[in-house]
Amino acid sequence: MYRVIRLLDPLVRSALALGLPGLDGIVRIATPGRRSGRTRRTLVTLLRVGDRWYVGHPNGHTGWTRNAEAAGGIDVDPAPAPIGAAAGDRATVGVTRLPPGPERTAVIEATRTQQPFPGNLVYRAAHRHILAVGVYFRLELPSSYAPPPPDEPGAPSGIPA
Predict the structure, then answer these.
(1) What pLDDT is recorded for position 87?
(2) Sheet with 135-140: strands ordered across
(3) In angstroms, rounded to a whole number, what is the distance separating the alpha carbons of residues 1 and 21?
(4) CA within 13 Å, CB half, 8
(5) 152 to each of 9, 52, 156, 161, how far by Cα in Å?
(6) Closest to 79 (Cα-Cα) out of 99, 96, 55
(7) Per-residue model confidence as pLDDT tens digits over 82-111
(8) Mean pLDDT, all residues of the chain
C-alpha cells in the first residue's frame, strides 16, 4: 500500500502547488542532507495533538528522518498558524524525536484520523507495526511564538499523561 501512496506523490505535489482542496495537513518539509548538505524535500502530514505539532514516518528511519534528527530541525512549507507568522508562511522549526511512551502513542493514534485518504487506511491496517517501529518528532516552535493562556476559551489542551 505504501508503494501505491508513493506513486501518488507527483499528483499530490501538483495539487499542493495549485492549492487544490482536500489536502489539509500535507506540507513540504526540507532538511539538509547529512552527508551532502544539499536540501532534501519530502511531503508529510503535519499532525496536531493538543497544542503541539508533529511529523513522522510509520516505517522507522528514512532518509528525511535521519536528516531531520542530524540537523535538529526542518523547514515546514506551508507552515500553519501559529508556527508561521501567518498561515502559509515557511518556517524553520526544531525537532525532538519522541521516545516510546504516551506522547508518541497519542501522535500515532492521531494519524488514524488526521492522515488523508488513502494513507489513513495504511495507518489503521498497520497500527501495531507503526507502534513498534515508527519514528516521530515533536516540532519545537520558534521562541517568538507564545501560545494562548490556558484559561482562554478555545485554548488547546495538552498531551495526555
Answers:
(1) 54
(2) 39-45, 26-32, 73-77, 91-97, 135-140, 52-57, 47-49
(3) 23
(4) 15
(5) 40, 17, 9, 22
(6) 55
(7) 555 555 677 889 999 999 999 999 999 998
(8) 76
Q: Could you tell me the pLDDT band of residue 12, with boundaries at 50, 70 and 90?
A: low
SS3 content of the chain, % helix, strand, coil (to 5): 30, 25, 40
Rounded to whole angstroms, the Cα distance separating 96 from 141 reads 11
Which residues contact residue 21 at a Cβ distance below 8 angstroms, ignoring those fewer than 6 apart?
A: none
41, 77 contact by CB (below 8 A) = no
Start-end of H helices in 19-72: 63-71
For cell 544539499, what's the residue? Answer: 38
Query: Would the pLDDT of 79 be above 80?
Result: no
